[in-house]
Hints:
The chain is built from 11 helices and 10 strands. By secondary structure, the chain is α/β, with parallel strands linked by helices.
Amino acid sequence: MKVLGIESSCDETGVAVYDTEAGLLAHCLHSQIDLHAAYGGVVPELASRDHIRRLPVLMKQALAQAGLENRDVDAVAYTSGPGLAGALLVGASVAEAFALARGIPALPVHHLEGHLLSPLLSADPPQFPFVALLVSGGHTQLMRVRGVGDYALLGESVDDAAGEAFDKTAKLLGLGYPGGPQLARLAEQGVAGRFRLPRPMLHSGDLDFSFSGLKTAVLNVVSGPDWDPAGMADLAAEFQQAVVEVLCAKALAALKKTGLKTLVVAGGVGANLHLRQTLDAALQQRGGRVHYPEPALCTDNGAMIAFAGAMRLAAGETVAGEPSVRIRPRWPLAELKPPQAAAA
């Protein structure tokens, strides 16, 4: 089965082709960073318009890269949510129209399920069950994963997600867009400890997160009378250290609670080198293992959507009813069911 995957939930346009026998055949991605940089953040209307421009071109590129024609595609998977409504509508409309024209199924895919399963695309994939740490600009969650669609929420952020806190803190420091990666690069030049920032909910006794207060603590430092911009790298390093300590502690607590030894990290923040180094060392010390997506698949992309759709279709999920553009800008991951249950 050859599945065409389309991702358009926010500011990346991704198209990929996944073959259930041969693996990932093509992966094409366009980032809108330059488009939104002048505004310091994503402008939904501009994002939607750019998806319209980019999708037809990327679809042609992906099929050519895979050595396929339109007629060779067996199914289309597209991001149905969560995400920006206008951006989701573009991808869903294109996917449903392509599927209708070809007479093939179009499967709506949960964006976070795509991230959650993306490490399975690596050369050394994890085995079910495992604990997943989803860390992105919009979500920070810990999940127990028994199989495709079989997810149990263990904990989540009660306010800002980790990636959101990175971006907002970068803006406080006057860094450009996208702020998170720039803050991480600045942190490499500094030393944590010169400033002492809180570790929110580190000892809360549960598996939830909170990063809004950490951002406020940075604001208090940079707006104080003794602030010297020369210490910006050290402040960035301390902020990153605080986030990583909390993420690592909660992930280890989730593993202990579930009795599992395998951790999967997915989402854009999962590309953070300091987070990876800290988690690798902690899990190795405890006889566990951490799995990450390939670096190119950490951010939003069509490959994870094609793969998630292919796994569901291969497990027997069917698309019921007449073709329709199905989007859910707000869609709790906990509402997903295993493929067989969905088909029933």
